[in-house]
């Protein structure tokens, strides 16, 4: 199951206005804002979704090499670890070792790899342990 999807935008304010208007009829609204400081200089991001679950992200910063960020839901942290190891063994490039990302929420445990085309692929678990 896909957990969330992210796209890079040039103008966050303009994109926010567009998506807020376009997604409101679908019951989708901004659920989370992440500043550039929170990402360590990797752009500012807005997470759209339903209460408590942002699943469509827009953000500034470097354009994704392949243009897409996809995150797959994992049932536990061990599966995130296995995803990362398997992706690297299959020729992926590391883009963030398995670990907690408390800037998103206290139990956010994810791992990131670039696929052969440069797309940013993630596995994430949202549960403790």
CATH C-level name: Alpha Beta
Question: Architecture in CATH?
Answer: Roll
Q: Order of strands across the biggest sheet?
A: 2-3-4-1-5-8-7-6
SSE series: EHEEEEHEEE
Largest sheet, if any? 8 strands, mixed
**pLDDT under 50 segments (min length 5)?**
none
Radius of gyration (CA) equals: 15 Å
**N-end to C-end Cα span:** 20 Å
What is the beta-strand fraction? 35-45%
Q: Give the total of domains.
A: 1
CATH fold call? 2,3-Dihydroxybiphenyl 1,2-Dioxygenase, domain 1
- Average per-residue pLDDT, rounded, comes to 88
Broad shape: globular
Helical segment count: 2
Oligomer: single chain
> Approximately how much helix is present in the residues?
10-25%
Structural class: alpha+beta
Q: Give the total of beta strands.
A: 8
CATH superfamily, by name, is: 2,3-Dihydroxybiphenyl 1,2-Dioxygenase, domain 1
Protein name: Glyoxalase
Domain VOC: 1-126
Pfam family, one: Glyoxalase
Organism: Paracoccus sphaerophysae
Structural description of this entry:
By secondary structure, this protein is an alpha+beta fold. It has a single domain, classed as Roll (2,3-Dihydroxybiphenyl 1,2-Dioxygenase, domain 1), CATH 3.10.180.10. Helix content is 19%, strand content 40%. It has two helices and eight strands; from the N terminus they run E-H-E-E-E-E-H-E-E-E. An eight-stranded mixed β-sheet has the order 2-3-4-1-5-8-7-6, with helices on one face. Strand 7 and strand 8 form a beta hairpin. The mean pLDDT is 88.
């Amino acid at each position: 199951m896909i957990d969330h999807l992210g796209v890079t935008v040039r103008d966050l304010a303009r994109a926010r206005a567009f998506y807020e208007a376009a997604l409101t009829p679908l019951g989708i609204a901004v659920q989370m804002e992440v500043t550039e400081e929170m990402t360590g200089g990797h752009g500012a991001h807005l997470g759209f979704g339903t209460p408590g679950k942002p699943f469509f992200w827009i953000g500034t910063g470097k354009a994704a090499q392949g243009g897409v960020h996809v995150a797959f839901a994992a049932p536990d942290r061990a599966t995130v670890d296995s995803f990362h190891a398997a992706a690297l063994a299959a020729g992926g490039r590391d883009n963030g070792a398995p670990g907690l990302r408390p800037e998103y929420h206290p139990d956010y445990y994810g791992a990131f790899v670039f696929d052969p085309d440069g797309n940013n692929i993630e596995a994430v678990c949202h549960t403790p342990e």
